[in-house]
Design a protein that fits this description.
The protein has 248 residues and is mainly beta. The protein contains two helices and twelve strands, in the order H-E-E-E-E-E-E-E-E-E-E-E-E-H. Helices cover 10% and strands 43% of the residues. It has a twelve-stranded mixed beta sheet with strand order 7-8-9-10-11-1-2-3-4-5-6-12.
């Protein structure tokens, strides 16, 4: 059942699969290491294998995030037109590609209101502008089209630098239109709980393009095949890889 525990933990880790940015003449290439803090009324068992750090490598608007799942790893590659998840599980290596059309004009399920804060933070030597993002979830994927439910609203706080990334497309899978790459993110994780990500190290270095490709020793799955594979392994459905939107 270790795989099931790892896959369950992944649902929380995917929160950091997103990123952001603005525009500078020269494209950033390098890595960012984040410390992760869990604040509020988390049960001790929820934090047993919860990651304390996460790392992203960045080249232009492409990012690759490493999630240590405790005995396994998941690498999420974010590009403008797709997301690739590489699962390094005990005994097997799997790859899933999720097409992700741009969401800027799609407000039928989610609406984003970006509010600039009056304060800034210096994080790892980068001056970061604060933003509050009010996210209104209009309808969940598993709801019936005719079902009437009240929209759910949450607020995410970020501090971003315009010295990383090319333009706001680096955020197209996180907060469409957000300017600047977030070196700090404070995100709700249920009633009375939040997860805080803050950069603790930023390094400029050359990034090889192969980092954003699927290695030849990974078995490829479509999103549908992946869900069926997880169901066979655990008797339960995995996260719906066809629905890439974050759970707030």
């Amino acid at each position: 059942m270790k795989k099931l525990a790892i896959i369950s933990l992944m649902a929380a880790c995917c929160l950091l699969g997103g990123k952001s940015m603005a525009q500078k003449g020269k494209s950033f290439a390098g890595s960012v290491k984040f410390g992760i803090k869990y604040e509020g009324d988390f049960e001790p068992k929820q934090l047993v294998n919860a990651p304390q750090e996460s790392e992203q490598i960045i080249s232009g608007n492409f990012t690759k995030t490493t999630h240590n799942l405790g005995g396994a790893f998941m690498y999420q590659i974010d590009m403008i037109d797709s997301i690739v998840r590489l699962w390094d599980l005990p005994g097997e290596k799997c790859a899933v590609t999720i097409p992700t059309p741009k969401k800027e004009n799609d407000t039928s399920k989610r609406n984003y209101v970006i509010q600039k804060r009056s304060d800034t933070k210096d994080i790892c030597g980068y001056q970061c502008q604060g933003y509050d993002i009010v996210v209104t979830v209009m309808k969940n994927e598993d709801e019936d089209e005719d079902e009437e439910t009240a929209p759910k609203t949450v607020t995410i706080t970020v501090y971003t630098t315009t010295e990383i990334g090319i333009d706001s497309n680096i955020n197209c899978h996180f907060i469409p239109g957000l300017q600047g790459f977030p070196l700090y993110k404070e995100q709700p994780a249920g009633e009375g709980k939040k997860v805080v990500y803050e950069a603790i190290e930023v390094k400029k270095k050359k990034i090889n393009a192969v980092e954003f490709s699927i290695p030849s020793n990974y078995k490829y799955y479509t999103p549908k095949e992946w869900n069926e594979h997880i169901r066979e392994l655990t008797g339960k459905s995995g996260e719906d890889e066809e629905d890439e939107e974050d759970d707030f």
